[in-house]
Amino acid sequence: AWSEGPGGFGTARTPGARVGTVWDGPDLWLRRSFGLPGEALLRLRAGSLFLRVHHDEDAEIYLNGVQVAALEGYTTGYRLEPLGPEAVSLLRNGGNTLAVHVHQTDGGQFIDVGIVEWVETGG
Q: Which value, to the nearest 10 degrees, does the dihedral of the CA atoms of residues 90, 93, 97, 98 take?
């Protein structure tokens, strides 16, 4: 019985927020499933994957049911949070789930999170 909506989730008065779905309550739980082909999984390594997250306020982030980040306070824009070897090892060939719980106490509120890969290029 999960509702669906485009990210990010929050209120327009939050600094740096691009709201796709209004969220104006004290708590929000989100989840998103994504596929990962085997060849992509083989080339991924610790140190190259990050959470790209903008949160207001406290956020707990889970990958395949295991907490991989606990972020306190708020940000006024997107930040990269590294995913360590333990988190990268949770990724599976095929289906994966990224889940988030965010708690709001005062002021603006917002959450948007995803996983990105940092690839260094020669130059």
A: 60
| Alpha-carbon span 33 to 45, nearest angstrom | 20
Encode pLDDT of 83-102 as tens digits. Answer: 999 999 999 998 999 999 99
Give the tens place of pLDDT for each residue, 27-38: 999 999 999 887
Contact 57, 73 (CB under 8 A): yes
Chain center to CA of 67: 11
How far is Cα 33 from Cα 103, in angstroms, rounded to an integer? 22
Instruction: Give the predicted TM-score (pTM) of the model.
Output: 0.91
- CB proximity list for 98: less than 8 A, separation 6 or greater: 31, 32, 33, 34, 61, 62, 63, 113, 114, 115
Say whether 44 sits in a helix, a strand or coil: coil
In Å, what is the CA distance from 119 to each residue of 11, 62, 63, 68?
33, 23, 21, 21
Report the candidate in 2, 26, 6 with the shortest Cα–Cα distance to residue 101: 26
